[in-house]
Amino acid sequence: MSGTRIAAIRLPCVDLDATEAFYVEAFGCVRETRETARRVIRLGNQRIELVLASGAPAAPAPSNATGFQHCAIIVADMDAAMARLRQSHVWSPISRNGPEQLPQASGGATAFKFRDPDGHPLELLQFAPGQVPEIWQAQGGAVFRGVDHSAITVSQTDEAIAFYRGLGFDPSERHLNRGVEQARLDGLALEEALVEVTTLRPAGGAPPHLELLCYRDPPGLSAPAPDGSVLATVLRLEGVPARDGDAPRALRDPDGHRLDIAEA
User: Fold this and answer.
1) Residue 259, CA distances (Å) to 80, 92, 169, 239, 249 in order
2) What is the structure's pLDDT at 264?
3) Which of 92, 169, 193, 242 has its CA 20 to 30 A from that of 186?
4) Is-above-0.90 flag for pTM?
């Protein structure tokens, strides 16, 4: 299927060798490209680019800040995934109480959020029984199956939808996640959290897709990731609809999230 797709998620790193080794050992990523200042690894059919960070370290962004952006990795068995992750000692938890099973009203999935050695937020996600999308069912016996989506915290859902529609993304689902489970999952010191979650599907169809997180309780914080920091994640897009010839290749959405548009 032609059309927009997220070709890779680009993560700035302090130590390429160390970060690459973590992804390979923890999740079974496959090395594809090894250059002095750039690595490409693959999990399932999705690619992650590791590049050297050019700026000073930045403090981790809380889940409700617009500088927050995580990659969601599909797992077939959360217990097995956690057992493998615990063999590494270079990650740090975001979730306050281990994996959380969300209420059925929020999809019923089990999830766990944490940070890799550079501080990039990651999520392990296991769909509820009977609700596993077909694309994630045909992955053999792999525990870690691929990258389902990149989730970004936004200040205004409608504004973000309008921006990404212009790049070939369309909303397919919009709902509210609420409760103590969401607060614990996101590492928020609250009795419960309330977040509007919107799925944006790229016209190209294949994962990863984009997920918008708009926090209502606690309120969202406008705090984009600093330039050059390890938190300055970039989504590399291919197949974007034709734009003006002078349109920039590097873009930022209304909340400062970074995109790189591949030339046609």
Assistant:
1) 34, 27, 13, 13, 8
2) 58
3) 169
4) yes
